[in-house]
Amino acid sequence: MHRDEIPPGTLYLLILKTLARSGELHGFEIANSIQRVSDDVLQVEEGSLYPALQRMLIKGWVTAKWGTTAGNRRARYYHLTSAGRKQLAVEMSQFERVIGAITRVIEAV
Amino acid sequence: MNWLYELARRLSMLVNRRQFDEDLREEMRLHLELLQEEQVRSGMPVTDARAAARRQFGNETALRESSHLALGWEWLEQLLQDANYGVHAMLRSPAITMVALLSLALGIGANTAIFSLMNAVMLKSLPVKDPTGLILFGDGLDQGISDGFPNPWLFSYPFYREMQKRNQVFSEVAAAFSMTDRVHGFVEGRSDAEAMNIQLVSGTYFPMLGVQAALGRTLSEEDDRTEGGHPVAVVSYAWWAGALARDPAVLNKKLKIGPTIFSIIGIAPPEFFGTKVGESPDIWIPLSMQKEIPPGWGGYNDQMFESLHLMARLKPGVTMAEANANVNLLFQQIVRGFSTAPLSQENLLKLDKTRVELNSMATGFSRLRYQFSEPLKILMVVVGLVLLIACANIANLLMARSTARARELAIRQALGAGRKRLIRQLLTESLVLALAGGALGVAFASVASNLLLRMVSDGREALQLSVSVDLRLLLFTLGVTLATALLFGTIPAFRATRLNLTDSLKDGRGQSCAPAKGPLAKALLVSQVALSLVLLIGAGLFVRSLINLAKVDTGFNIENVIRMRLDASSAGYQEDARLFMLYQQIEEQVSALPGVRAASFSGFTFNEGTWNNGIWVQGYLDGHSETDVHHNAVGPGYFAAMGIPLLVGRNFGPQDTATSPKVGIIGETLARTMFPSGSPIGKYYGRGGPEHAGDIEVIGVAKDVKYSSLDEEQQPGDYLPYSQNVRYLNDFVLRYTGDSASVISAVRQAIHDVDAGLPISDVMTLDAAVARSITNQRLVAELSTFFGLLALFLSCIGIYGLMSYTVVRRTNEIGLRMALGAKRSNVLWLVMRESLWLVSLGIAIGVPAALAADRLVVSMLFGLRANDPVSLLAGAGVLLAVAALAGYLPARRAAMVDPMVSLRYE
Question: I need a labelling partner for B103 at 20 to 30 A (CA). Which of A79, B354, B495, B825 fits?
Fold first, then answer.
């Protein structure tokens, strides 16, 4: 099965959206969720989630706390802050603007 | 605000770095495990699953690294790492580091200390409201009481009142007595007299300056209305805190000064020290009370009692030129209007040409400034040069070090260290050195400025100056050294990292590896030598001046003389027969003490001010007067006590009484100029006008003495017996044998047996008084010698370092030469020649520079010219000798090279 690399610059958007939809998730769940929801099309190089998450922690978009998984393992759960929600809206509109523009360009006759 | 929260999160992550790391590791491990389990569930063997999970996850170390970078603190971590490395590098060569740190510390510290003193003496604004609007009449250098005409420097009280009333350019005019009165008074409830420095001021003084009382009120115009009618006093904050022990009930407390009781009405604010820099009065009293303050000046209504400094505040919008025009117009009008002014034709002509010079009083005024500004400027230049030399030294040191490390840097580059990263590391190391030196410099500066203040105060009570370490200059000098370290740390860093790697890896010492010790290092060394020579020659000049001054014949014998001040006016004596009796009794009692050979009262001894006016000689050049004769009133024991030889005639004796014919003893110079033909003995002269020319009979001629300073020209002077001139004589001198301390205590006892209430102060030996008069010259000589030697030392370190380096670099060449038959002496000379050449070049540049520089200090020199060949030769000789030694040590090491070893070394 062919998997596509995610377009550059959209990793934050994907993480923010995923967290917004599912509430608390740990890193593995975030990666899985992106993959599953995109019907296995979008492939996150899983490790690269972590530097991104650290940056988001610093920006204050997400917070993290330790909890236990269903399999009774210690895992670090991330969830969205209100700043994160605002950022999601910003990234969404940016993304839509870009996609809209690209669409207009490729559909132009 | 967001960035602030973000910074806080970054900081907290930095602080909890370990936790951050562990968290990251753990969640990554979990992720990997979950991935692996997923693979296993889909049927992959465990070992393959692990590899697959790792593949899918990516490079864990790199990811952790990039997570770290997200924190944004890597620069700090690197900085700490570099700093740490820098400290270690410094510790590896402790001697060089010590020299570098010491020179930095001394350079920074000395500059800051001297500038701080200069700031306090010359530059700091008065702590009053809007000091830039303040104007001083004249230059404020004259002190005392004059009846000179016309006088544009000192003014009478009636003149002040006229100027205040009639001017159109000042919002207020104020006056202050040109001297402070040192009296002894009593604080209410205490039985011992206290020394008090009293400043008489006009009622407008405080309001004009805009100074508000810290407690109570200051003086006002109301306190300066009626002569003798306002016994009120404002005390200084320091005096309240000291002498009054911060008494909270200070207001309305009484002070008994002379016979008068004064009420304290207020405390001046802590920062206010008056208007004269270096003098802090304890008590301000209105000029209306001048007759009540011992010795009881009575100039309140006297138009010709010129004793005041005048100051004023410009009205807003008035220019200096307008003020000048108005003041000088009024000066002419007011003085011409005075009924008691001596308006002779000659004086009116002089008046026409006289102008009052107005000066800004923003920084106050001061004799101190006049006295110290020259030496301070010289010292500032000296320490500035020392700082330059220190910087040159640091530069050479840093260049040498990074050159020596070329190989290390090449290896690091080969291992993949970025060039930027290496340069940053070298810079950090330089910074560590500069900052450590700077920190030491700051510490040294505060010690040094106190030391310096004590040196300039020298014996007298500490100068009343608040010398705080000047922050601006401290930052400036720190900046200079940091810039030096950065610049000279960078140049080699750039060079070293631009290396052809393979070359320097092949050979750590070859010619190819580092040209850094080339012309730049040599130029630095040459300029260092030249600057050192300038300093050494300057120091030589100052030291020789000081020696010349010490050799000056004062005319009196400074050994075994004690001088003290007895304040009879504060003890309630009037200038009458009772005072005369007191003086006689004390002289008799003290002279009779064992260990005392002679004792006498006198108006002055040395460097205590003078009493000058003109004399007229009977029968000599009709109407001719010598205008500037230094008078002194003394007792018969004065010449023996001071050791002044009487050349001709007789001494004063008991036959010279208030009613006997007036007599005088004149100095050689006066005898020569005013009595040119024959012996002056038996001839007559007088003071106060031609009609008095027959008043005083000359009975003796004494050897000339110095009056105010050792370097003054011989002045005409005379002595009058105080029995015929009863007046306050504050000086008491005695010649003693044996132990001064026991003599002093016996003398105190004897004086207090005569009058227990007579305040005794300022007890000191005459040679200390003479030494005090050359404080300036000694200060400059001592400090310039110290810094000259420091500069010499730094230059030698420079020579030594450069030559050592050269020797190491040329070991092969030297070995080869020796293998080919060169003698050790040839090798020695080979190396010595280079250092001697550099030093000679430095001297060749330094000599003309010194000749040019020394012309600027000519006013500080005594008994020699600026191009004094002895100082010049001595400076150059010392420099050459010491530099030769510094060059000899590495040269000898070169000569010791074993050719076999050095050739094999290659």
Answer: B495
Last residue of a domain, one of B725, B758, B791: B758
| Contact present, B224 and B203 (Cβ < 8 Å) | yes
B379 and B355 within one domain: no
pLDDT at B621: 58
Whole-angstrom Cα distance, residue B122 to residue B362?
Answer: 11
Regarding whether B31 and B179 lie in a shared domain, the answer is no
Could B28 and A76 be called an inter-chain contact, meaning their C-beta atoms sit closer than 8 Å? no
Residue B425 located in a structural domain: yes
Q: Please state the rounded mean pLDDT for residues B818-834.
A: 86
Distance in angstroms (rounded) separating the CA atoms of residues B859 and B793: 28
Cis peptide leading into residue B150 (ω within 30°): yes
Q: In terms of domains, do B731 and B795 share one?
A: no
B66 touches chain A (CB under 8 A): yes
How large is the ipTM?
0.88
According to DSSP, residue B24 is labeled H
Residues in chain B within 8 Å Cβ distance of A62: none
Run of H or E residues at A65? strand A62-68
B752: tokens are: 């207090």
Domain-terminating residue out of B362, B382, B397: B362
Spans of all domains in chain A: 4-107
Please give the Cα distance from B769 to B795 (Å, whole number). 39
pLDDT digits (tens, 9 = 90+) for B595-630: 999 999 999 898 887 787 778 888 765 555 666 789
Asked if A26's CB is within 8 angstroms of B71's CB, the reply is no
Closest residue in chain A to residue B20, using alpha carbons only: A54
Q: Which of B193-202, B214-223, B801-810, B813-822 is predicted least confidently? A: B801-810
Same domain, residue pair B343 and B445: no
pLDDT of B496 reads 63
CB spacing of A58 vs B13 below 8 angstroms: yes
In a domain, B124, yes or no: no
Residue among A26, A51, A58 minimizing CB distance to B66:
A51
Over 70: is that where the pLDDT of B512 sits? no
d(CA B171, CA B208): 8
B35 and A73 within 8 Å at the Cβ level: the answer is: no
The CB density around residue B432, as the number of other CB atoms within 10 Å, is: 19
Confidence of residue A86 (pLDDT cuts 50, 70, 90): very high
B440 and B373 housed in the same domain: yes
Which whole number is the average pLDDT over B807-830?
83
Are residues B300 and B432 both part of a single domain?
Answer: no
Q: Which residues in chain B have Cβ-Cβ distances shorter than 8 Å to A58?
A: 6, 9-10, 13, 70-72
Tell me which residue range forms the domain holding B277: 131-362
The structure's pTM equals 0.72
Judgement on whether residues B704 and B788 belong to the same structural domain of the protein: no
Stretch B13-23: mean pLDDT, rounded?
82
Residue B782 lies in a domain: yes
| Chain-chain contact of A28 with B30 (C-beta, under 8 angstroms) | yes
Q: What average pLDDT does the structure give for chain B? A: 86
Query: Which one of B2, B27, B70 has the shortest CB-CB distance to A75?
Result: B27
pLDDT at A22 over 50: yes
Please compute the mean of the pLDDT values over residues B44-56 and round it to a whole number.
84
Token pair of B490 as six digits = 């960078």
Count of pairs with CB atoms under 8 A, one residue in A, one in B = 70
Topology of the domain covering A4-107: Arc Repressor Mutant, subunit A (1.10.10)
Q: Give the count of alpha carbons within 13 A of B703, CB side only.
A: 14
Rounded Cα distance, B90 and B98, in Å: 9
* Angle (CA) B152 B153 B157, round 5°: 90
Question: Residue A64: its chain B contacts at CB < 8 A?
Answer: 23
Q: What is the total count of domains within chain B?
A: 4
User: Is residue B90 included in any domain, yes or no?
Assistant: no
Say if B70 is an interface residue toward chain A (CB within 8 Å): yes
Question: Could you tell me if B24 lies within 8 Å of chain A, comparing CB atoms?
Answer: yes
Question: Mean of the pLDDT values across residues B846-872?
Answer: 86
**In terms of domains, do B790 and B824 share one?**
yes
